């Protein structure tokens, strides 16, 4: 192993802390990144909290300190995160918007100076309004908390505001809906950068579902049928995902899952929405897709490596999930 391979790549995450910050808008997404750092060693998310003040209050009345000054420049390929703000923090009698004005203006001015091509901007909840005031959503598809949609349309008339979306990704702009949708957005980022298996592990740790944005592509086939928290099924699914080509009978998986074959079959249908054998087939097809697009193996070798008895069996199983034959996918990948 080379020295370079031993050191994970670093991704700079710059979290802007506005006054009256919604604490869950920071804690939820950044907890996703913290756990992602623990789940793999190829990538490290380096978190920095910045703002116009070294101290500020939060939505729940808890004070935050240790916030660094807004930097003159952010690293190339950084992700800048803008959380939302609470209208009326816990314990406050009236919102003091006037005193917060200069701090918000400083954030807007900073965003206009530092956001450049190659820098990704992610807003959580009403954080989209700050991005809009900085003119950074013009020409982009975006979303926000349903209570802020009218304001976002007013502040970003040149943006295409999408309603009823968990999150929207358009180029280097990522926006999410209210509060916990920031977790969904960050799981999406982790899936992109560290892989869907890491995102799945983080989601399971947080006991949340892996949900996709309304207009996003379908969930990775490696994540299909895993929108649940049942440990028995996860044990079986983990075993299959680790080696789809193995001889996975219901009886063998039942032993691994510590369940009877009948109970495992029932649990799969109830919680994964498919049978055990259907799940195994989906994983083998997912592996075959990767071999078709990422290797030069012929169809018989692809079938063998992905657990099918023959290329004919592969094509037959493939036809259950795809409208075109596997050879067409290889042709499309070659022409891409």
Topology:
Layout: H1 3-6, E1 9-16, H2 23-39, E2 43-51, E3 56-57, E4 63-64, E5 68-69, E6 79-82, H3 97-114, E7 120-123, H4 127-133, E8 141-142, H5 149-155, E9 160-161, E10 167-170, E11 173-176, H6 181-194, H7 196-206, H8 231-242, H9 250-257, H10 261-272, H11 276-294, H12 299-305, H13 311-318, H14 326-335
Parallel strand pairs: 1-2, 1-6, 2-5, 6-7, 7-11, 8-9
Antiparallel strand pairs: 3-4, 10-11
Helix pairs in contact: 2-6, 2-7, 6-7, 8-9, 9-10, 11-12
Pfam families: DJ-1_PfpI (PF01965), HTH_18 (PF12833)
GO molecular function: DNA-binding transcription factor activity; sequence-specific DNA binding
Protein name: GlxA family transcriptional regulator
Notes on the structure:
The radius of gyration is 23 Å and the shape is elongated. The strands form three sheets. A seven-stranded mixed sheet has the order 5-2-1-6-7-11-10, with helices on both faces. It has a two-stranded antiparallel ribbon with strand order 3-4. The chain has a two-stranded parallel ribbon with strand order 8-9. It contains 14 helices and eleven strands. The mean pLDDT is 91. The chain has helices at 3-6, 23-39, 97-114, 127-133, 149-155, 181-194, 196-206, 231-242, 250-257, 261-272, 276-294, 299-305, 311-318, 326-335; strands spanning 9-16, 43-51, 56-57, 63-64, 68-69, 79-82, 120-123, 141-142, 160-161, 167-170, 173-176. It has two domains: 3-206, Rossmann fold, CATH 3.40.50; 221-335, Arc Repressor Mutant, subunit A, CATH 1.10.10. With 336 residues, it is of the alpha/beta class. It comes from Acidisoma silvae. Residues 234-332 form the HTH araC/xylS-type domain. InterPro entries: Class_I_gatase-like (IPR029062), DJ-1/PfpI (IPR002818), Homeodomain-like_sf (IPR009057), HTH_AraC (IPR018060), INH-QAR (IPR052158). One of its GO terms (molecular function) is sequence-specific DNA binding.
């Amino acid at each position: 192993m080379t020295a370079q391979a031993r050191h994970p790549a670093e991704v700079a995450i710059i979290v802007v802390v506005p006054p009256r910050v919604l604490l869950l808008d920071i804690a939820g997404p950044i907890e996703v990144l913290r756990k992602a750092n623990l789940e793999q060693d190829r990538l490290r998310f380096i978190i920095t909290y910045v703002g116009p003040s070294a101290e500020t209050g939060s939505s729940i009345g808890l004070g935050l300190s240790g916030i660094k000054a807004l930097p003159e420049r952010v690293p190339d390929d950084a992700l800048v995160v803008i959380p939302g703000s609470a209208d009326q923090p816990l314990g406050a009698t009236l919102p003091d918007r006037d005193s917060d004005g200069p701090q918000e203006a400083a954030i807007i001015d900073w965003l206009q100076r530092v956001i450049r091509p190659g820098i990704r901007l992610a807003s959580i909840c009403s954080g989209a309004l700050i991005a809009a005031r900085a003119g950074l959503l013009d020409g982009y598809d975006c979303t926000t908390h349903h209570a802020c949609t009218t304001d976002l349309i007013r502040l970003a008339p040149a943006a295409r505001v999408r309603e009823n979306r968990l999150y929207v990704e358009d180029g280097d702009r990522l926006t999410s809906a209210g509060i916990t949708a920031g977790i969904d957005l960050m799981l999406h980022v982790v899936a992109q950068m560290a892989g869907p298996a890491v995102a799945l592990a983080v989601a399971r740790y947080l006991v949340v579902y892996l949900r996709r944005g309304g207009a996003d592509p379908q969930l990775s086939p490696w994540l299909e049928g895993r929108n649940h928290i049942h440990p028995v099924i996860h044990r079986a699914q983990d075993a299959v995902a680790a080696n789809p080509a193995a001889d996975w009978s219901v009886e063998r998986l039942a032993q691994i899952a510590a369940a009877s074959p009948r109970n495992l079959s029932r649990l799969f249908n109830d919680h994964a929405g498919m049978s055990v054998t259907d799940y195994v087939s989906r994983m083998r097809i997912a592996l075959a897709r990767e071999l078709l697009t990422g290797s030069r193996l012929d169809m018989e070798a692809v079938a063998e490596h992905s657990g099918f008895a023959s290329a004919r069996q592969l094509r037959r199983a493939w036809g259950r999930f795809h409208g075109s034959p596997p050879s067409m996918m290889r042709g499309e990948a070659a022409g891409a």
